């Protein structure tokens, strides 16, 4: 549906030549803008309804006292079975923060959710075999767990934007919704949508615009030419950097990985690009910046980028 919308705007409404870089950029921008905003609205609304039925205080009480390793493991499990992209994971991240769930646990979910899902695993099995798919899932779990541990050591709560903690008015509205019927709960959930989308919409547009420009004006041949040498130590870091301006979920990026593999790009380099696109996309980072300050965002990017490079080098070594 979103792809058809992008095609109609770029090729029919604007009459652009389908093979041109501008047409590809416009098609990508329209398609991803529609897709991301629909997912944001739906997920924020559902999170609002959940909070209108189950108070954040009750969620906090359930989590309180549990060992952190258990909380991280549950968060990774939840992230692995929810088919969310990186951008649509952020509203859930905000909900977890507001529920006073430790940030080391919320980061475990934020890392695991876009990287691992059952559809992507099935597709990977079909392309690379179950052994490689299993190793990819294991790598994703390890990256999510270790990354969340390191983020926890840094005490990231000090870098959360003040408005996230300042929820007195929203807490009162939440309590009113908990004691009311469906209409009041709907009003509360829709208010959450308007508040969050109003805060982040321009950053979403900016991130998608950068990704669209990259998608339209950087040819795949150029990417494969510079990533195909397994002996080039810069190929894996370059793959991680190239993935940041792009945006897709793990399922959507697998065809790109398959094309790169067919062009001779090493498996570790291809998977490093896949991880970067799925979990370090620029739209996600710009949205996340509205929740956490620059130091936390820099650490988050640095930890994941290093982890993806290590995974890429490891896969290249194992399967060279």
From TrEMBL:
<feature type="transmembrane region" description="Helical">
    <location>
        <begin position="36"/>
        <end position="54"/>
    </location>
</feature>
<dbReference type="InterPro" id="IPR053166">
    <property type="entry name" value="UPF0718_permease"/>
</dbReference>
<feature type="transmembrane region" description="Helical">
    <location>
        <begin position="297"/>
        <end position="319"/>
    </location>
</feature>
<dbReference type="InterPro" id="IPR005524">
    <property type="entry name" value="DUF318"/>
</dbReference>
<keyword id="KW-0472">Membrane</keyword>
<protein>
    <submittedName>
        <fullName>Permease</fullName>
    </submittedName>
</protein>
<keyword id="KW-1003">Cell membrane</keyword>
<keyword id="KW-0812">Transmembrane</keyword>
<dbReference type="Pfam" id="PF03773">
    <property type="entry name" value="ArsP_1"/>
</dbReference>
<feature type="transmembrane region" description="Helical">
    <location>
        <begin position="200"/>
        <end position="218"/>
    </location>
</feature>
<feature type="transmembrane region" description="Helical">
    <location>
        <begin position="135"/>
        <end position="154"/>
    </location>
</feature>
<feature type="transmembrane region" description="Helical">
    <location>
        <begin position="74"/>
        <end position="97"/>
    </location>
</feature>
<keyword id="KW-1133">Transmembrane helix</keyword>
<feature type="transmembrane region" description="Helical">
    <location>
        <begin position="103"/>
        <end position="128"/>
    </location>
</feature>
<dbReference type="GO" id="GO:0005886">
    <property type="term" value="C:plasma membrane"/>
</dbReference>
<comment type="similarity">
    <text>Belongs to the UPF0718 family.</text>
</comment>
<feature type="transmembrane region" description="Helical">
    <location>
        <begin position="267"/>
        <end position="288"/>
    </location>
</feature>
């Amino acid at each position: 549906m979103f792809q058809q919308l992008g095609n109609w705007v770029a090729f029919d409404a604007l009459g652009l030549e389908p093979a041109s870089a501008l047409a590809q950029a416009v098609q990508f921008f329209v398609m991803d803008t529609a897709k991301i905003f629909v997912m944001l609205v739906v997920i924020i609304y559902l999170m609002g309804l959940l909070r209108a039925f189950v108070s954040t205080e009750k969620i906090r009480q359930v989590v309180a006292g549990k060992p952190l390793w258990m909380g991280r493991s549950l968060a990774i499990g939840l992230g692995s079975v929810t088919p969310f992209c990186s951008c649509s994971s952020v509203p859930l991240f905000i909900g977890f923060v507001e529920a006073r769930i430790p940030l080391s646990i919320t980061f475990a979910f934020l890392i695991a959710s876009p990287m691992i899902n059952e559809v992507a695993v099935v597709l990977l099995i079909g392309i690379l075999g179950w052994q490689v798919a299993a190793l990819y899932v294991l790598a994703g779990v390890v990256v999510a767990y270790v990354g969340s541990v390191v983020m926890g050591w840094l005490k990231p709560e000090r870098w959360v934007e003040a408005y996230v903690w300042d929820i007195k008015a929203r807490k009162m509205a939440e309590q009113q919704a908990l004691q009311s019927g469906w209409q009041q709960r709907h009003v509360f959930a829709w208010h959450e949508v308007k508040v969050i989308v109003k805060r982040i919409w321009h950053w979403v547009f900016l991130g998608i615009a950068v990704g669209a420009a990259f998608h339209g004006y950087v040819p795949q041949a150029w990417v494969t030419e510079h990533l195909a040498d397994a002996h080039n130590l810069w190929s894996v870091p370059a793959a991680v950097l190239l993935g940041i301006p792009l945006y897709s979920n793990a399922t959507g990026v697998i065809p790109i990985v398959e094309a790169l593999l067919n062009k001779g790009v090493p498996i570790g380099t291809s998977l490093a690009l896949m991880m970067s696109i799925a979990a370090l996309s620029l739209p996600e980072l710009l949205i996340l910046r509205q929740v956490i300050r620059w130091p936390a965002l820099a650490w988050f990017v640095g930890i994941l980028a290093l982890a993806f490079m290590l995974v890429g080098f490891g896969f290249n070594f194992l399967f060279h």
